[in-house]
Amino acid sequence: MSDKKFTPRVFSGIKPSGGLQLGNYLGAIKRFVQMQDEMETVYCVVDLHAITVWQDPKELANGTREVAAGYLAAGLDPTKSILFNQSQVAAHAELGWIFNCVARMGWMNRMTQFKDKAGANAEKVSLGLYAYPSLMAADILLYHATHVPVGEDQKQHVELTRDIAAKFNHDFKTDFFPMTEPIIDGPATRVMNLRDGTKKMSKSGESDMERVNMTDDADTIVKKFKKAKTDPEPLPDTLEGLKDRPEARNLVDIYAALNDSTPDAVIGEYAGAGWGRFKPALADLAVSKLAPIADEMARLMDDPTEIDKVLKNGADRARAIADPVLAQTYDIVGFLRS
Ligand code: TRP
Known about the structure:
The protein contains 13 helices and 5 strands.
């Protein structure tokens, strides 16, 4: 293979299944918005992926808008980034099919997320859930994306994307698809549950007190941090001292991420402080960062025409990149186009 150069381009996908929370904001949205000033950025609300498990149609449309609203409210500039929903760009499904014919059963069988999600129920889950990572490879490679910011849990899927690109390039004797790099970093790529510091914060957890939603108002945010589980010890002098204190560590990480600081710096400032001092400071910081975003999300959701326009325009721009890549792929594969 030659060392063909690809324009640096970021792609990432966000699932529109029900409610954005602090983990989405700190782990994805905030970082994605920052990247728009560094590189070409393409962000896709992956509604095709969402239906690999059952979605209520009304909630799906609403969830797609809410994710878009979250990005816009957090500062995504739709003239810089491309923001669109996957189903509006047919090339995703089309390239996904070709990749279903490139990926091997053995590779798919090793996907740990599928095994976790299907569990004992593997006979009853959709075929789409199994093929999910191959569609994800299509998302990425349609844009010849060079960098994909994702959480740790998606690393294996990005590696599969590289395997698919390499096999396609090898089988068709081409260097058409790039070897995409995952970007996994940031102090709070793993925001943990406020009631149990060993579990990830998630939108599906049973109690609303265990997470901060991006739509929570100021009073709710304050209440949730006040009630967050901690231990009786004050904050230590060094980060080392947070070992084996998952709840304390989580609150320090959240503070650092919200403040564009580091856990070390937070410990430096609050060494010896009790929770009676740290929690209100954290709650104030969270309210100052999150409440304006929640307000803007509410404004956008109130009249979705603005969001829908952004998504339509994003889809037009996405197609301008994706369609020629798909057309060239068709030529390489040998599909007759007249
Ligand atoms: N699988 C990702 C998740 O669950 C979402 C996703 C779909 C994605 N397509 C993508 C992420 C392409 C990065 C690039 O979070």
